[in-house]
Amino acid sequence: MHEMVIESIRVSLVNYQRVVILRVKETGKYLPIWIGSHEADSIAYKLQDISAPRPLTHDLLHDVITELDANVKKIIISGIDENTFFAKIELATQNSIIEIDCRPSDAIALAVRTESPIFAINEVIEKAGVKMDINSDELKKETEISSPDNSFAPISEEEVKKLSAYSKFIETLNTDDIK
Fold first, then answer.
1. How wide is the angle at C-alpha 6 spanned by C-alphas 109 and 53, nearest 5°?
2. Nearest Cα to Cα of residue 10 among 47, 49, 40
3. Contact present, 7 and 22 (Cβ < 8 Å)
């Protein structure tokens, strides 16, 4: 199992989908995971210490876990099947350790709120890990990072305008301060 750090959140210029780039802490490999726009925003807000006027879903989940006197021990990217990633949240209660199946995007959004470590199993790194020049987005290994279903409806001009504000915001994120 490898510890991961959030390197960046990017927006595809082709289909405007978000991708979170995780980096294996001890090597130069990266793990790109396609995520939804709401989850990307949730992660980005917390990384930039931006508060929403009302709690976001992941803030609510964090608050519920805290109120139940449990804590998040770690997040595990636990599998990949046909470009779909799987994750688990490991919770510690007073009496036991509980693993909860979830989407990686939700697990990562929770991890940034709880300052919990993120791990990926070896098999996931072997199957989906890539080497890339993070400054140019150039892949160093022949690989194709495909979107989850490879079928996207055309995006209207109005949607592009709305998304450009998020794109500009996400491009300004600096994750160097994340521990």
1. 35
2. 40
3. yes
pLDDT tens digits, one per residue of 82-138: 989 999 999 999 999 999 999 999 999 999 999 999 999 999 999 999 987 666 555
What is the CATH code for 2-146+155-171? Answer: 3.10.690.10
How far apart, in whole angstroms, are the C-alpha atoms of residue 178 and residue 46?
11
Cα distance between residue 123 and residue 176, in whole Å: 27
Of 72, 86, 54, 43, the C-alpha closest to 175 is 43
DSSP 124-173: HHHHH-EEEETTTTEESSS-----SSS--PPPPHHHHHHHHHHHHHHHT-
Return the closest-CA partner of residue 74 out of 120, 19, 139, 124.
120
Sign of torsion over alpha carbons 178, 102, 34, 129: positive
Listing DSSP states for 55-98 in one string gives --HHHHHHHHHHHTT-EEEEEEEEEEETTEEEEEEEEE-SS-EE
CA–CA gap between residue 49 and residue 59 (Å, rounded): 13
d(CA 61, CA 162): 28
What is d(CA 179, CA 175) in angstroms, rounded to the nearest whole number?
A: 9
